[in-house]
Design a protein that fits this description.
Layout: E1 3-7, E2 12-17, E3 28-31, E4 34-37, H1 62-79, H2 99-103
Antiparallel strand pairs: 1-2, 2-3, 3-4
Length: 104
C-alpha cells in the first residue's frame, strides 16, 4: 500500500492512498487525534492515478456502490493508522434516490 502524506503549516496532514480512486486531491485530513475522510464514490478501481479519467461506478446498483465505498473508507483509515471500528459519524448521500435504485 502506497500513500502520500503532506504536512501543512497548520498541523493538518493530508493523506492520499495511491492505489485508490480519489475525488479531489486527498482521501483524508488528519489533525490532532481526528481523521476526516473525504467523500468517496462506489467506483471501479483502476491502475494508476489519472485525474482526467472518467468515474466508472461498480456494476450492481446501490448495494454494490455502498459496499465499494465501505471498502475504500476502510483502506483509507488503515493507511491513516486507524480502522472502521473508530468511526464516530458517517454520512451517506444518495442523489436521485428512487424506487429503481432500491429494487436492485
Amino acid at each position: 500500500r502506497q500513500s502520500v502524506r503532506q504536512k501543512g503549516s497548520s498541523q493538518v496532514e493530508h493523506m492520499r492512498v495511491l492505489s485508490l480512486p480519489v475525488i479531489g486531491n486527498t482521501h483524508a485530513s488528519i489533525s490532532s487525534s481526528q481523521i476526516h475522510v473525504a467523500a468517496v464514490l462506489g467506483q471501479q478501481l483502476r491502475a494508476g492515478y489519472d485525474p482526467k479519467a472518467p468515474v466508472v461506478l461498480v456494476p450492481g446498483g446501490l448495494v454494490s456502490e455502498a459496499y465499494r465505498c465501505c471498502q475504500i473508507m476502510e483502506q483509507v483509515l488503515l493507511a491513516c493508522g486507524s480502522s472502521v471500528h473508530h468511526i464516530v459519524r458517517l454520512t451517506c448521500h444518495v442523489p436521485d434516490l428512487n424506487k429503481a435504485k432500491l429494487d436492485v
